[in-house]
Each structure stands twice: as C-alpha cells, then as structure tokens.
Specification:
The protein has 339 residues and is of the alpha/beta class. The chain is built from six helices and 17 strands. The chain has two domains: 3-63 and 153-338, 3-Layer(aba) Sandwich (QueA-like); 67-133, QueA-like (Thrombin, subunit H). The protein is globular, with a radius of gyration of 20 Å.
C-alpha cells in the first residue's frame, strides 16, 4: 500500500468556496457496496434512503473562534495565533505565525472580540507554542472562526461553518459531514423513525496535515479528545440488537466509535483520546453506513473512506463526481455509503 494509491485529479474550480443554500440542498452521491452502484440524489432526500430503526451518530463539537491577530510588544511585528487546546484556563497550546516569534518570555498583544489581550510565550514546541494569557480565554468568543486553507473567498456568516447541533467550542475545524443537516431535516428523519445520537471528537489542526510518508502506515495522527456518552452507547446497543444500522455522520464519528470498539470490544461510555488511523484492511466493528464529504487526495480521510467501501470503488466514485461536477471538500457535497 502506497500513499500514491490514493491520488485523483481534481479541477481547482470544483473546490467549494461557499456552502450550499439551504444546507440540505447539497448533492448526495449514494454508494451501495454490495451492488457497487452509484446514485445521484439531493441531501434533503436522506429520509428516503435510510430505514426506520437506523441510528445517525453525529459529532456535536463546535469550532472555536480561535484565530487571533496581534503584535509583539517590543517590536510591533505582526503575529497570528490559532488556539489549539487548553492546558489550564489561561495557558494554551497554540499555532503561531511566524513560529520564530515564539521565544520564551516574549510578550504579545492580541486583538480579540472582548478587547486587547496580553500573553507571554512560555514554551516553544517543534510545531506549536505554549502561551500564558493575562486572563481566561473564552474559545467561543475571542477571535475569528478559522476556515480551511483551501477556502479563500468566503465572506458569509461564520455559523455556516458550524453544524446546527454544535455545542461546546473545542475544535479547530468543523466535522463537515454534519454541515448539511437542518433542523427541519432532522425533524423529518425522526418522524421517519431514524434515531439520532451524539459523540464528541475535538478536531485538531492536524486534520489538514497531508500524508507525506510513502507508506501511509508510517503516518501518525495527532491525538484528539473523544467522548461517548452513556445514552449514545445504549442507543447503539439497542440499534444493533434490533437489526438497525449505525450510520456515522463523518470520519470523526467513525474514528471515535471504532477506537472505543477496538479498545473495549464494543461501544461503551468513554472519555479519552484517540490517534486511530484507519487504513484499508481495518476491521470495522461499530458502524454500518457512512455519510461523508469528498476529501483531499492522499489524505488520511480519503484512506478511511477507502477502507470502508473499497479503494477502487471509492476512486471510481470520485472520478464520477468530477465528471458530474460535484463540489468538493468542507463546503462541498456529500456521499452516503450504504451496505
């Protein structure tokens, strides 16, 4: 297995710069693994494609308002800070640009939506830094919501880069498969007998890091915090007991549930961390179906999808998506993979 096995050609104009409006107007490519068939639908038609007794499992994390701009106090040189994760209420691991500015003891003055905020560099790490802020940081309200680097032209409401069911702001990026759901669509799914349940995986900035190793088995994912509530573990147990399907909404849900099932033997209530890299050959224990967006070539996310549905089938579907002019990546269209 080589990283180059997960390459495909994507015209740049197919990288979505704005989300579909309304959310559930996005296109939906339906893959059926048993038949190796591909069908073209609209996301709002999802209730017709699932069955009573199925369970949608979603990631309820919220993207932090994590991007802050400011200056070095002693020189006035510009700096950019991206909140990554808290160590204490006032001490955070961050990304800094330029990283050479992260000299221990250096003072920064940052502009936030709550007014000026001072910070001191405590430690420089290989790719990150540790800052001590002058006050507690509110990750939901400090700065700007960071968008992926390939979205360059979006000037709309930053809530469009949040799911409608997002809760606590702890992520550096959105679980984008969930962006297509509206409150109305969720109500229609419940009326059709499809259940919903939630897990949390706090998405780190490493989600955009490409696989650079020639052999993807040598790639390492950053550890990310995960949580499976008791009610979700019970809902999954009941769904499987009555023959329903567990439908993961996004690769973050897949990694959360598969990590817990691999560690515990089945999905149980869980609090911890995962760095699970899912590649072809993985034995799936928790999920039966998957909703996901279209991912970057050579990415660990594309490899996960290929592990679930088969590499050739998935790459054939991606080539079909290019021909059919689907929209790709975070603000793009979606794929539903059924048994």
């Amino acid at each position: 297995m080589r990283t180059s096995d997960f390459e495909y050609e994507l015209p740049p104009e197919l990288i979505a710069q704005e989300p579909a409006e309304p959310r559930d107007a996005a296109r939906l490519m339906v893959l059926r693994r048993a038949e190796r068939s591909i069908e073209h639908r609209i996301f709002r038609e999802l209730p017709e494609l699932l069955a009573p007794g199925d369970l949608l499992v979603m990631n309820d994390t919220r993207v932090m308002a994590a991007r802050l701009y400011g200056v070095r106090e002693e020189t006035g040189g510009r700096v950019e800070v991206l909140l990554v994760r808290p160590l204490e209420p006032r001490r955070w691991v961050v990304l800094m640009r330029p990283l050479r500015s992260a000299r221990p003891g250096r003072r920064l003055l940052l502009e936030t939506r709550r007014g000026p905020l001072g910070a001191v560099v405590v430690e420089r790490l290989p790719d990150e830094a540790v800052l001590e802020f002058d006050r507690e940081v509110d990750p939901a309200n400090e700065g700007q919501v960071p968008l992926p680097p390939y979205i360059r032209h979006f000037r709309g409401d930053p809530e469009r880069y949040q799911t409608v069911y997002a809760r606590e702001a702890r992520s550096a990026a959105a679980p984008t498969a969930g962006l297509h759901f509206t409150p109305e669509l969720l109500a229609r799914l419940r009326a059709a007998g499809v259940g919903t349940a939630f897990v949390t995986l706090d998405v780190g900035p490493g989600t955009f890091r490409p696989v650079t190793a020639d052999d993807p088995r040598h790639h390492r994912l950053d550890e990310e915090r995960i949580s499976v509530p008791t009610e979700t573990a019970e809902a999954i147990r009941r769904t499987k007991a009555r023959g329903g399907r567990v439908v993961a909404v996004g690769t973050t849900v897949v990694r959360t549930l598969e990590h817990v099932a691999q560690e515990c033997g089945e999905v149980q209530p869980y609090e911890g961390w995962t760095g699970l890299l899912i590649l072809p050959g993985h034995e799936f224990r928790a999920i039966d179906a998957l909703i996901t967006n279209f991912h970057l070539p050579r990415s660990s996310l594309l490899m996960l999808v290929a592990a679930f549905a088969g590499r050739e089938f998935v790459l054939d579907a991606y080539r079909s998506a290019v021909v059919e002019r689907y929209r790709f990546y975070s603000f793009g269209d979606a794929m539903l993979i059924l048994p």
